[in-house]
Amino acid sequence: MRNLRLKRFIINGGVVAYPTESCFGLGCDPHNLRAIKKLNILKKRPVNKNFILISSKLNQIKKILQELNNSQIQNLNMKWPGPHTWLIEANHKCPSWLRKKNKVAVRVPDLNICQNLLNSIAMPITSTSANRTKQRPIKNYREACRQYKKSVHIIKGRIGKNKKPSQIQDFDTKAIIRR
Q1: SS3 78
Q2: What's the farthest any 2 CA atoms get from each other in the chain?
Q3: What is the pLDDT of residues 25-44, one digit of tens each?
Q4: Cβ contacts of residue 64 below 8 Å, gap of 6+?
Q5: CB–CB of 143/5 below 8 Å?
Q6: 95: part of which helix (H) or strand (E)?
């Protein structure tokens, strides 16, 4: 699928499966509630569970975050790009379904295939593991195809070398939420 077609597919409510640092992920347009619902149904995921947003650069997600100063941006960039998710204060433009206690989970991955996907569509997407709830993670393209067949667009490629999902850390308190 070419870049413009892929972006249009995602904006129009399509879901993509793609390699991440530790497993295949599922993503969609974070501003499209219909796509969010579709993703939850595909994954058999509880609707109250939060999403992580991934983007190729901070500028793609700045508009939903509270304003950050240069020092804060430097702190983010100490862990980015990489498998580190920050919980950052959201602003009023952030959709309610992406917030928990007025924070939004965001990450800039360093895996080339993820970066290429995000750069090609020039927008952030949601990121959640592609496995169905309570199932083991999907580790390769063939498994992703078997699981989702024609219901999502699957990006061909290999996952990264990480054994565990990204670490999640509160940006303000520095508390580790997930190791």
Answers
A1: helix
A2: 45
A3: 999 999 999 999 999 999 99
A4: 53, 90, 91, 93, 94, 95, 98, 104
A5: no
A6: none
C-alpha to C-alpha distance for 53 and 89, rounded to whole angstroms: 13
Q: What is the pLDDT of residues 71-119, one digit of tens each?
A: 999 999 999 999 999 999 999 999 999 999 999 999 999 999 999 999 9
Token reading at 21: 């640092």
8 Å CB contact between 145 and 51: no
Q: How far is C-alpha 136 from the chain's CA centre?
A: 18
Give the whole-angstrom CA distance, residue 151 versus residue 25.
Answer: 14
Cβ-based neighbours of 59, under 8 Å, separated by 6 or more: none
pTM given for the model: 0.93
| Buried-exposed string 157-169: b where 16+ CB fall within 10 A, e elsewhere | bebbeeeebbbbb
- CA-to-CA distance for 142 and 125, rounded, in angstroms? 22
Domains annotated for the chain, with CATH where assigned, are: 3-178 (3.90.870.10)
